[in-house]
Amino acid sequence: MIRNLSAWHIIVLVLVVLLLFGANRLPGLAKSVGQSMKIFKTEVKDLRDDDTRPDEPTEGTTPPKV
């Protein structure tokens, strides 16, 4: 899908975004999108770390009896 984008597509997309949001609101919009992406990436990283970390009992707890 992204491979089919030409320069004209990008120009039209930028113009539509400018018309919808206006030049004054674009910096704030870009900042909020950047912050959201940062939060999303850290959450995905935390989930991956949880999956790869072996299950270890925490201090003060006893492992379950089998």
Structure report:
The protein is mostly helical and 66 residues long. The protein has one domain. The protein has two helices and no strands. The longest helix has 27 residues, at 26-52. The radius of gyration is 22 Å and the shape is elongated.
Mean pLDDT: 83
Strand-pairing-aware structural class: mainly alpha
How would you classify the quaternary structure?
single chain
Strand content: under 5%
Low-confidence stretches: none
Shape: elongated
SSE pattern: HH
Largest sheet: none
Overall number of domains:
1
Task: Please compute the radius of gyration using only Cα atoms.
Answer: 22 Å
Count of DSSP E strands?
0
Helix content: 55-70%
N- to C-terminal distance = 52 Å
Q: Counting H and I runs of at least 4 residues, what is the number of helices?
A: 2
Membrane topology: Single-pass membrane protein
InterPro entries: TatA/B/E, TatA/E
Keywords: Cell membrane, Membrane, Protein transport, Translocation, Transmembrane, Transmembrane helix, Transport
Function: Part of the twin-arginine translocation (Tat) system that transports large folded proteins containing a characteristic twin-arginine motif in their signal peptide across membranes. TatA could form the protein-conducting channel of the Tat system.
